[in-house]
Each structure stands twice: as C-alpha cells, then as structure tokens.
Amino acid sequence: MRRAAKRLLKYAFVVSGVIFLTYVVDVEKLHKTLKSEVDNKLDEIYTELSQTLDHENRVMQEIDVLRNQISDTLKDTPKDDKTDSTSFPNLRVVVIACNRVTVNQCLDSLLEARQLSGVDFEIIISQDCHHEPTKAVISKFISSYQNMKYVEYNDVEPDWQASLKIAKPNKYQLGYYKLARHYKFALSTAFSTQPDGVIIVEDDLKVSPDFFNYMISGFEIYKQNQEKVFCISAWNDNGLPGQIDVSKRLDSYYTDFFPGLGWLLPLSVWQEWQINWPNAYWDDWVREPEQRKGRLCIHPEVPRSHTFGKVGVSNGQFYEKHLKRMILNDEYFALDEWRESMQNLVVAENYRENKILKISKLENWDTSKADFCFKEPGEFKAMYKTEKQFAAMAEFFGIMKDIKAGIPRMGFNGNVEFMFRRCRIFLTASR
Questions:
Q1: What percent of the chain has pLDDT above 90?
Q2: Catalytic pick from 196, 203, 283, 336?
Q3: Average pLDDT, whole number, for the chain?
C-alpha cells in the first residue's frame, strides 16, 4: 500500500512536470508570435510617419519658396500712401480762443482724438481778448501736453476812415471785424511753416473721437481733386435728430456750401486767400463765387463737431433752437474705414453725375407721402423753382431754410438731402 502510494506520487510529479513544460513552451511560442506582430505593426507606423514627414517637409519647402517670392515682389512694389495707415499728411491745428474758460472742453476732445488716431499734429491755441482766466486754463494744457503751442494776438483797431474807407461799425458789428483780424493772424501763424493744411477749430467746439481720421481721409480726397475741392468740414447744418441717418455714420458728401465749424483749409487755398482776406464776415466772404470758384467742400452725414458756445460774436444766433440739439458722433472709426467709405468721392465729377442720375429716377414727393414716411422707409425728390419756394418747403421739412451766395445750406448742385421721418428726401432745384 505504501509502495503503491509512492508510485502514484511519482507518476503525479512526472505528469505535472510534463504539463509545466508544455505550458512554458506554449507561452514562449505566444510571446514570439505577439512580438513578431508588434514589430510588424511598428514598422508599418514608422513607414507611414516617415512618408507623412517627407510630404510635410516638401510642402514647407514650397511655402518658403513662395514666401521669398512674395517678399521680393513687395520690396519691388512702390508704396501706396493711400493704403498705409501710418502715412499722414503734414497738418496743424489752430484753436481760435478769446474769453471762454470752457476752452478745456475743446482741448480735451482734440487731445483724445489725437491720441486715438495716433497722430501728433501740433495744436496751436491763438488767444485774443487778453482774458487771464482763459489764458490760465490754456497754460495748464501747454505745460501738461506735448506738441501744443500758445500764441497771443494783440489786436490793434484800424483807422477806419484812413485805411478801410468806412465809418466805424456799430458795437454789434465790431466783433465780426475783430474776429476776421484774429483769423488772419492765427492762420498766418499756423501756415508759417508751410504745412499741407490747417484744421481750424473755435474754442466752443468739441470734436468726435474719429475727427482726425475723418480729416486725413478727406484731405486725401482733396489731393486727388485739387481743382474741385477747397475744404473738408466736420459740420452738417442739417444734423438735428431726425434729419440725419445715424446708421450712416461713415457716409460723407460733397456740398457747394461752406459749412465751417471745424474745417480743414489746404495750403494752396490759403495762398489764394491771404492777400485779399476780408475785414469782416470772413465766412460769408469764403462763400462768395470769387473765393469758391465752383469748388466743393466735403461734409459728413453725422457731424464730427458740436458747438457748446451759446454766447459769442453772433450772440447765440440759432443756438437754443438749432445748434444746441445737433448730434455729435461719439463712435471711433479707424482711418482705413474712412478711406474705404470715401471711395465714392474720389472722382468729384463722377460723384456729380451719379447724384444727378439717382435723383432723376426718384418718385416725386407730395403731401400724401408724409403719412407713408411715418411707417415705411423710402426715397423721394421734392422740387422747388424759387428761393421763396425752397424756404417754404425747408420750413415744412424742418431743415435750415436760408440761402447764402445763392446756395442753400448743405446744397449740392441745387439739391439738399436729409431724413424726414423714415424717408430720405432730396429737396431739388427744378431744371
């Protein structure tokens, strides 16, 4: 019994050994098989990656070749100043000041616009009146900011009979004579270094954040139309709420009328005018045919300047009723945006022809359209034959009705365009 048990144990040991050896052999075979499959897969992945990298290297080499070709082409291409945002004309700003301590509002807005536009146009503040509180305000700006200059105008009343051949004007008129003399002094000072142009701002004006971008773009249009254009104005006389389309903040137009109130005067035009500069009412003198010579001004749909001065030479004329409520653009638009938006002005004669054609196709206005314009947008032409007729229709629509030197305010080729309720109206001279 004991001998049989030993024999059985021996057989069990032998069987276990055989089983173990079989297992070891199978595992080794499995390991070899798996290793072979993994190696094959890795070889496939390596081959695929190598092919991909070779392709990408070839693509990068082709890109480098193209980049070098483009770079060489750009080096050989003349620089176009009209599309270079860093290319600015040589402009100066002159602020006409007297006795408004609120001149700080004007200067703050100019400095903000100058900083936003990245320009460094010199700002010259020319003061008349010898008003010390105003001079103190200006002096703080001069000491705090770079590229600002103060000049003082020491007015000398002329010998009316001997030099001007007229009797001394009354008290109301004297201010206009003095202002014309101050303007001549300030402009002569600003143009003494022969800049491309001077931007004139009175001390009761605030300007928009994109004021200088608008002026630069407008000046570039002038440079392409020097025989056709004589000024760029930030003003729109019909800029009251409801009279302009505030969605067209980048729109600008030509006008035969001189708007003033924040405007750019090119050097060549000043050289024409300086010898014959008037003794008084300089703005009405500018509007006369002898000075305008059939040339145009550029103006925006939405004003880029706003007057806050109720008291002045004109004693607040139109201020409460009109000027106080004028809209001032408060959004910043880049120079390239202005350049793109003014493309319709590049060829002045094309602008004229396109405007005439557009108006000719419009439906005529009649009083039944008034209710329509409450509900729906539209465009209509309203025809007038005489200045009296124009004044009556302008009063109905609520726009400025006066005419100076034969031209209605903001008129172009006898046409004044504005918003009436939801409609665009073209108040047009009948031909």
A1: 70
A2: 283
A3: 85
